[in-house]
Design goal:
The chain has seven helices and no strands.
Length: about 210
């Protein structure tokens, strides 16, 4: 079973993280240039226009290759971590003594410990799924951006930009999965550490989401 402290701190951490990202979505939608996400979208749109206008196909492929390599590394790491955590969940019979010692306010529960591990593993599976989707869209852009100037292709700047933005959105979501792993990892040591990790993450994101 869970104590009232576990319920309270866990719920508060969820509310804090959810509220921040709801505010970020609103800010990005209404004041896009005030956030790193909105500004990056504007820069990518200008980049596509310039690449097509100046016929810089080689530069486009090199840039897309760098993005794809980064997404590949992050997706591979995410799936390995996710499977490793699942392995721990299957072979661990109870919560480790270290976690019990640090969890001052929690109530030892084997089911709750397994829930924490599964949640953390799911977070990395979420990151993995988004990174492989980012790779998919980047590969599409690599093909269509080189033929966008041909009449037969019937592909304009807006079409290329839309696909690139989709890939970038999935890349951003994948990175959010890595960011969320900070408080979720601390959650293994107790709900109060989940709350501390969530507050720490918000402080970091407040800066990251304001500057590119």
């Amino acid at each position: 079973m869970m104590s009232y402290w576990d319920y309270g701190f866990t719920l508060l951490a969820i509310v804090i993280l959810s509220s921040y990202h709801i505010w970020l979505l609103w800010k990005t939608h209404h004041q896009p240039l005030s956030t790193a996400i909105g500004l990056s979208r504007r820069i990518r749109k200008i980049w596509v226009k310039q690449i097509i206008a100046e016929n810089q196909a080689l530069l486009a492929i090199q840039t897309l290759r760098n993005w794809t390599m980064a997404a590949t590394l992050l997706s591979s790491t995410a799936i390995l971590i996710a499977l490793g955590i699942l392995n721990v969940a299957f072979v661990t019979e109870s919560e480790p003594e270290l976690a019990k010692l640090i969890d001052y306010l929690g109530y030892p529960s084997e089911n709750f410990w397994l829930l924490k591990l599964i949640t953390l593993s799911s977070d990395f599976f979420f990151a993995f799924f988004n990174f492989i989707l980012a790779i998919r869209y980047y590969n599409h852009v690599g093909f269509i951006i080189t033929v966008s100037g041909h009449e037969e292709a019937n592909i304009g700047v807006e079409s290329v930009t839309k696909i690139l933005q989709r890939g970038a959105n999935h890349y951003t979501l994948g990175m959010r999965g890595y960011y969320f792993s900070i408080p979720l990892s601390l959650w293994l040591f107790g709900s109060i550490w989940l709350l501390v990790g969530s507050l720490l993450l918000i402080v970091i994101l407040l800066r990251l989401d304001r500057f590119v």
